[in-house]
Amino acid sequence: MLVKQSDEVTPWFRRSKLDGRNPLGDDGPGVAARAALRRGQAQQVFADEPRVQIRCGDWRELAQQAPFDLLVLDGGGQGKGDEPPLEPAEWLRPGGVVVLDDFTPGAGWPPRVGGSLDEARLYWLEHPRLRTAEVRVTPTAASLVATYIG
Known about the structure:
The chain contains four helices and eight strands; from the N terminus they run αβαββαβββαββ. By secondary structure, the chain is α/β, with parallel strands linked by helices. The strands form three sheets. Strands 3-4-8-7 form a four-stranded mixed beta sheet. It has a two-stranded parallel sheet with strand order 1-2. It has a two-stranded antiparallel sheet with strand order 5-6. It is globular.
């Protein structure tokens, strides 16, 4: 299971049962000082859970440890910008969940961002091997939550 430490996910995950799974955290590429601070905070939250590892670095380096039960993407792998989205079959176990953050709330169909078709959001919402829902987490922010059906 891959868990990326974040303000939204950590409290929920910390309260949940791990059920023998092996979660792994990825703070992703970013400003070194911010990543170090977040890594330290995550390590404190999960100090008594030996199955959780917190990692900083390029998310692609985690592919060799797939498949995961829970994958939370904060930046890379989502398909935004010039980067292609990851392929869920290569990263998730059947029944695994991927959470993607940093979306603006959808306001219609088809989804648009900056006047253009939101290709990244469409990839996740229309992927034939995922069942995806958009969840508004604040008035100006949304996350996509998808289950990989295999």
